[in-house]
Amino acid sequence: MPFNYVTVTASSELFAPATRAFGDILVLGKGAVGRGATTARSFTYPGKAVEAYPKGATTLAAKADKAATTVTAAASFPVGTRVRIGEGEEAEYLTIKSVAEVEGGGGGEGPGEVSSFTWTLEAALAADHPSGDPLVWEKPNDVAAAIATAFRQTPPPTRVWGIEVDPADPDWDTAFTEAEDLPVQILVLANTPLNGNPATDHPVELLAKHVVDVSNTGGDGKERIGVAALDPGEAQSAQVKRNAGAIKTDRMVLVAHKESQDDVAAAVAGVIAGHEPHISLLLKPINMGMSGLFTATEIETYYTNSINWVTSPVMLPGHGLYLGEGLTASPAGNKAYVDIVRTLDDISFRIKAALIEAIGDIRIDRPGLRTVVTLVQSVLSPLVTRDVIEEYVIHIPLLVLLEREPATLAPDEVKQIGNGRSTRSVDMEVSVVYAGVIHQIAVKLALKG
To answer: CA-to-CA distance for 269 and 384, rounded, in angstroms?
Structure first.
């Protein structure tokens, strides 16, 4: 080994703070008939969701004759479902008018056992179909359709997760338990409008309780919001009453809309996910279809009840659809707008991710606490530069005492320093000035001669 005057052993101990996505979505919903529940999967492209969540399918439990208006199926599909009967050139497409259970049919083993269903069709069959012929639900899977709607927004989300519950016996509690550990910030229920069915333990109510509980007790980076759409089939007086109880929280976003073939809640979730936390949702474009627009009176009613709406302002060219506001479901705690909640969540995580470097390493003395201040400054100063926040103030009471000459400290102040060092705990206050964007402008126009 050669003789060296100076020997350097290089190593890297660089610290990179943890990062957190700001717009990953979780879609929970009923799966296809016959599939049962599935575990969480993530997607970065809607086509993969369609492959993962196929359409519902069953088979004919008995031969169906040409010109018949009823068929016997092995499973029940919802009334109004358009289905494909058969395959290949013999396939035909009809809509289900009604469904009735067949007790003990198709090989049932006991009285009252349901093993097949009689479907009444909107029109007669054009051909014979043997027993076992496929019956395929032409409507996309609810979860796959919601994921596709979320990805259709501009800008789109980066990642969308999906969890299916059994359509025949949905176990929402199990699905929400699985959702607790997923790295998502926005949750939505596929094709599940907020209405009076069921009257208690509505899935949207369970969603609201989930986002509040997990945000408060779920650990670092688990803060999240929920999105739900009102049922356009209900009168507005009934709709606004839905924003009550557990649902009325700043962790929920409610939206009203006219009749639409799209999953509006998923569309709104996609709009939120595509924008950084500090961006207001007001007048952000939403890619969906809608049959009409709300009146000024209806809009005022929604606004006063902390409910967003879909609109098409005449002052914006193109006649597109936009979110009429960016409200949370509750203005309590000065968190009336979605961007406030999301920005607080984002800054909170950034600060904790930076300060973890100080834990177990930096001492409770003047240089150490100054280092803590510097770590927080490294998070907040770039946000000021990017106009996310206006300014900030960092206050550590213990550092204020340590900055003073020891001889000037009162006995109780000396005790405070001792307590901090013995408990190894440091309190810090961070005040951030957040300037929201303009949502309304009142102009007084006077014409003078």
So the answer is: 27
- List the end-to-end C-alpha distance of the chain, in Å, as a whole number: 97
Q: How many CB atoms lie within 10 A of CB 437?
A: 11
Side-chain-side CA neighbours of residue 285 (13 Å):
11
Residue (of 8, 9, 46, 12) closest to 27 by Cα position: 46
Phi-psi label, residue 254: left if phi above 0, alpha if psi -120 to 50, beta otherwise: beta
Give residue-wise pLDDT tens across range 8-34: 888 777 777 888 888 999 999 998 887
Average pLDDT, the chain: 93
Whether the CB-CB separation of 133 and 60 falls below 8 Å is answered with yes
Residue count of the chain, please give it: 449
Per DSSP, 168 falls in state S
Kindly give, in sequence order, each residue whose CB lies less than 8 Å from that of residue 442, ignoring residues fewer than 6 positions away: none
Highest mean pLDDT among 19-23, 78-82, 89-93, 245-249: 245-249
Q: What is the pLDDT of residues 288-316, one digit of tens each?
A: 999 999 999 999 999 999 999 999 999 99
Residue with tokens 């060296």: 4
What is the C-alpha separation between 277 and 273, in angstroms, rounded?
8
Highest average pLDDT, of 92-106, 132-146, 295-309, comes from 295-309
The CA distance from 336 to 213, in Å, is 19
How far, in Å, are 27, 214, 226, 342 from residue 256 at the CA level? 19, 26, 15, 21
- Say if CB 276 and CB 437 are below 8 A apart: no
Q: What are the residues facing 163 on neighbouring strands?
A: 28
CB 375, CB 246: distance < 8 Å: no
Helices (H), 65-168: 142-151
3-state class percentages of the chain: helix first, strand second, coil last, to nearest 5: 30, 20, 50
Query: SS3 of 372, please?
Result: helix
Contacts of 170 (CB under 8 A, 6+ apart): 30, 203
The residue written with tokens 């919802």 in the block is 78
Both structure tokens of 71 = 């068929």
| CA proximity to 151, closest of 287, 31, 19 | 287
Q: How far apart are CA 335 and CA 362, in angstroms?
A: 35
pLDDT confidence of residue 59: 92
- What's the rounded Cα separation, in Å, for the pair 145 and 139? 9
Q: CA-to-CA distance for 232 and 266, rounded, in angstroms?
A: 15
